[in-house]
Design brief:
Blueprint (H helix, E strand, L loop, with lengths): L34 H12 L7 H15 L4 E6 L10 H22 L3 E6 L12 E4 L2 E4 L21 H22 L5 H14 L3 H20 L12 E6 L3 H6 L1 E4 L5 E4 L4 E4 L9 H6 L6 E6 L4 H11 L8 E6 L5 H14 L5 E4 L6 E3 L5 E3 L1 H18 L5 E5 L34 H20 L2
Parallel strand pairs: 1-2, 1-14, 2-5, 5-8, 8-9, 9-10, 10-11, 11-14
Antiparallel strand pairs: 3-4, 6-7, 12-13
Helix pairs in contact: 1-4, 3-4, 3-5, 3-6, 3-12, 5-6, 9-10, 10-11, 11-12
């Protein structure tokens, strides 16, 4: 394949091409049993239309540059792992509905636009701690997401199947078509979204607490109507798609050159891709692949990540220091963030790297319940976000956004919230393919509480 001629996002000394990652070591590389079958599938994928367009990815980068300047806030949210069996138009609509409801609260509270990014239309692969597990005395591959194998506990079903890449592409296509219809066809009308929030406030046990924000939004909408404001932004929204770029064969197959913008390469599987904490080694395959594509990128940063490694990621993934290019997503846990995050933010700031900081309060707060299910406490999730805001307030930096695992379904996977889900209730509706998600009510509870943090943060600027 041809080499990226612009090198604006490439490494400082080595040329990049879409397949240069294949010469690097890789954590969490899929052990495909039939290489010829994989090659045949990726050739088919490489001939298929892009899922997103390069101009859309550049528009997201422009919006993220505004976040970096403190002129916008990011809500990145969606399913832990998309699955083939549970896909439906209703689930796509319900997940979008929660994101829209949360976004209006955050926009009003922050006093700046909310950039909406879904964990959607590609979140089919999951890194796992172990490659194999024992089920009923039989050793088999762990479930790595529907893009790779099946959740069904059977040796054959757990064998990686390249045809799943095609199924992932097909479902992503259908999902994006639905989302474009919903976001541009009237479903996202601001007045309707706020009416949904009003219904939530009226029924929530925390309703009185949230009344001030809801009333403020009422008055803002009344003012816009009185002024005759009737712009596109009141009836339509932009929602960008993102996922963890874990299966690089899939990502490479959907990477295209954009002839309208200097022949830059873009990974057209999503507007934004991120690197997980297990795959962020500087000289390994995932960093190598993503350094050469023009999309906005994210990297998950855990409590054990050292300053030198974060600075190395900034240099490797954004050597030109382009605003909007790189987002650092902290996932440290409620008890560790206040101690570990400040030195990273300070080091990146002092080195002059323009990054968006986001908080993932989900993964650092996961534990196994007394009943044996993986879960998270609502209070820990909010506690990490509150500490994240405190850190930025102390440093004079902008808390750019939050990254959440949630669903529009009425699941019982996380403890607490206004639903007061207990350990005994976790088994009631525990449907996740991997990690526990906030349900719709818990998500809206969290949005209003983040709104209170944003209002306080803004008043102290």
């Amino acid at each position: 394949m041809s080499v990226n001629s612009t090198q604006t996002q490439g490494g400082p000394t080595t040329a990049w091409s879409p397949d240069s990652w294949t010469h690097c070591d890789a954590e969490k590389r899929v052990a495909w049993p039939d290489e010829d079958a994989l090659q045949e599938v990726t050739k088919r994928l490489s001939r298929m239309p892009p899922l997103i367009y390069a101009g859309e990815a550049r528009r997201l980068a422009d919006e993220l540059a505004r976040v970096e300047r403190g002129e916008a806030f990011v809500l990145q949210a969606g399913d832990c792992a998309e699955t083939f069996d549970e896909f439906s138009a209703d689930r796509v609509r319900d997940g979008l509905k929660v994101i829209l409801q949360m976004a209006i609260v955050l926009t009003y509270s922050a006093g700046v636009p909310t950039v909406k990014i879904g964990r959607v239309a590609g979140q089919f692969a999951k890194p796992r701690s172990a490659d194999t597990e024992v089920v009923c005395g039989e050793t088999m591959n762990t479930y790595q997401g529907d893009m790779v194998n099946s959740r069904f506990a059977d040796v054959d079903a757990r064998t990686p199947n390249p045809e799943n890449l095609i199924r992932s592409y097909d479902q992503a296509t259908a999902t994006l078509n639905l989302l474009r219809g919903f976001t541009k066809g009237g479903f996202a009308d601001l007045a309707d979204v706020h009416a949904w929030n009003r219904a939530f406030v009226a029924s929530s046990s925390e309703g009185r607490r949230y009344e001030a924000i809801a009333t403020g939004i009422d008055k803002a909408l009344e003012l816009m109507r009185a002024c005759g404001v009737d712009s596109r932004s009141l009836h339509e929204v932009d929602l960008y798609a993102s996922h963890e770029a874990l299966v690089l064969a899939y990502e490479q197959a959907l990477t295209r050159q954009d002839s309208t913008f200097g022949d830059r390469w873009y990974d057209c599987s999503a507007h934004m891709l991120w690197i997980g904490t297990r795959t962020k080694k500087l000289d390994h395959a995932h960093v190598e692949f993503l350094r050469g594509v023009g999309n906005p990128l994210g990297v998950k940063i855990d409590k054990d990540t050292e300053v030198d490694h974060v600075l190395g990621l900034c240099e490797r993934l954004n050597p030109e220091r382009t605003p909007g290019r790189l987002t650092l997503i902290s996932r440290m846990g409620r008890t560790a963030i206040a101690d570990r995050l400040p030195r990273l933010i300070a080091a990146v700031r002092d080195a002059g790297h323009p990054v968006v900081w986001m908080c993932d309060p989900m993964h650092g707060n996961t534990f196994t319940s007394e009943g044996g299910l993986k879960t998270r406490r609502f209070d820990d999730i909010f506690g990490e976000i509150a500490a994240y805001f405190d850190v930025h307030a102390s440093l004079g930096t902008w808390p750019g956004g939050v990254h959440l695992e949630l669903t529009g379904d009425n699941v019982t996977e996380c403890l607490g919230g206004s639903d007061r889900i207990s350990d005994e209730q976790l088994h009631d509706v525990y449907n996740t393919a991997c990690d526990p998600r906030l349900n719709a009510n818990q998500s809206l509870d969290l949005a209003f509480q983040i709104g209170e943090l944003l209002d306080g943060f803004r008043s102290n600027l």
